[in-house]
Amino acid sequence: MYSALSPPINVVPLSRLRQSLSRYRRQVQGGDVIPVDYYKDRIGYLVPVAIATALQLSAEQEMGLIDFRDKLNSAWESLEAGVDCIWLTYHGERRLAFVSTRIFQPQDEPEVQSEEPDTEEL
């Protein structure tokens, strides 16, 4: 399990991720790890490709960034159903990964601040 995070770290609600995916993509490509929450439950992490390739993955998918944004809820459901990692691609190249909390849980994660409450309905 990977255990290093660099503070400060902000939790991103699922609804905010949908709205600002390109901003978070740039942050992750710069080396940040971004926890993603849904009603204060941690559902996964956006991580750089280098971190995701170091994890032991048994089930993975690949999805374009646009498809990911459009089908964010189904991507999250895939993680809950047993997929360890969803590789997010842009122009056919892996840019970042959305990984399950089953395989990536930083042990030294600092206390996090939510950027805004998640108001998205199911």
Radius of gyration over C-alpha positions, nearest whole angstrom: 13 Å
Distance between the first and last residues' Cα? 31 Å
Give start-end ranges of low-pLDDT stretches: none
Shape category: globular
SSE order, as H and E? EHHEEHEHHEEE
Q: Helices and strands: which structural class?
A: alpha/beta
Share in helix: 25-40%
- When the domains are counted, the total is 1
Spatial order of strands in the largest sheet = 4-5-6-3-2-1-7
**What is the subunit arrangement here?**
single chain
Detailed description of the structure:
The chain has 122 residues and is an alpha/beta fold. It has one domain (10-111). It is 30% helix and 30% strand. The protein has helices spanning 14-19, 21-29, 49-54, 65-70, 72-80; strands at residues 10-13, 34-38, 41-48, 60-64, 85-90, 93-99, 113-114. Strands 4-5-6-3-2-1-7 form a 7-stranded mixed beta sheet. The longest helix has 9 residues, at 21-29. The N and C termini lie far apart (31 Å).
Helix and strand layout, with pairings?
Blueprint: E1 10-13, H1 14-19, H2 21-29, E2 34-38, E3 41-48, H3 49-54, E4 60-64, H4 65-70, H5 72-80, E5 85-90, E6 93-99, E7 113-114
Parallel strand pairs: 1-2, 1-7, 4-5
Antiparallel strand pairs: 2-3, 3-6, 5-6
